[in-house]
Amino acid sequence: MKKISLVLLLVLSLGLYSCSGNKENTITVAASPKPHAEILEYAKPLLKEKGYTLVVKPYNDYIMPNKALTLKQVDANFFQHEPYLNQYNADNKTNIVSIAKIHIEPIGIYSKKYSSLAEVENNAVVFISSSKSDHGRLLNLLVNANLITLKAGINPFQATLNDIAENPKNLQIRADIDPTSLVDAYKYNQADLILINSNFALDANINPGTEAIALERPNDNPFANIIATLPEYEDSPKIKALVDVLTSPAISEWILNKWNGDIVPFVEE
User: Fold this and answer.
1) What's the first-to-final CA gap in the chain, in angstroms?
2) Can you tell me the distance from the alpha carbon of 54 to that of 29, in angstroms, rounded to the nearest whole number?
3) Do 2-105+222-265 and 108-215 come out as alike in CATH topology?
4) If exposure means fewest CB atoms within 10 Å of the residue's CB, which of 10, 26, 73, 78 is most exposed?
5) Domain extents for the chain?
6) Is 69 helix (H, G, I), strand (E, B) or coil?
7) Domain 108-215 class?
8) Nearest to 234 by CA among 48, 103, 102, 97
9) CATH class given for the domain over 2-105+222-265
10) Could you report the per-residue pLDDT of 109-166, keeping only the tens digit for each?
């Protein structure tokens, strides 16, 4: 009996050690399906070469990846930009940190009614995301499309609807649309102009390069999508390995070849 107990104890000890070892060599990342999870899938063999197994957990919303991280169900997440993360931390009293910028997903203006910006009529209805962290970015896109202007001295990426100075076509801008509903709004022609982030467009098999009548400029864009983690994980070897791979030339080249400019790798200027 004593021998059996010792054997069981040894087996259990080895099992616990094995699980601990596997956990140290496993990187679990919560991610949006497109393009984030796809980028991570491509990174798997590159991380394998460094001795790590990458597990990707896809989420279709903007809330659960951060919740999963704060609950320590994952090691990192990959779905958001820094302005969104800053707003989330402020609203939820969390301290998630950004550790690397990976790519930019240009927002596009889509329309079933117009084939160019020149055709936009007075009183056109415009749908934009209800995510306040994106409002400056969306308004800046409308500025670059010569549809509105902003008040002098306003940082365009921090602008709100109250900062619109001129709206010559009297656009009817609705900012109460959940970002996940914008694709359906476009498909079912629910507004004249709809501003959609490229990851949602690609997930719905919409090609930003051919279907958008205008695309956001990637230059000087603070909305790069990031890898985020908890402060206590930031300096761990496996998180550093994740960052090394996702910021490597191999990943940047693959992003460019895969999406032909619809998704753009982040480049520090």
Assistant:
1) 69
2) 8
3) yes
4) 10
5) 2-105+222-265, 108-215
6) helix
7) alpha beta
8) 97
9) alpha beta
10) 999 999 999 999 999 999 999 988 899 999 999 999 999 999 999 998 889 999 999 9
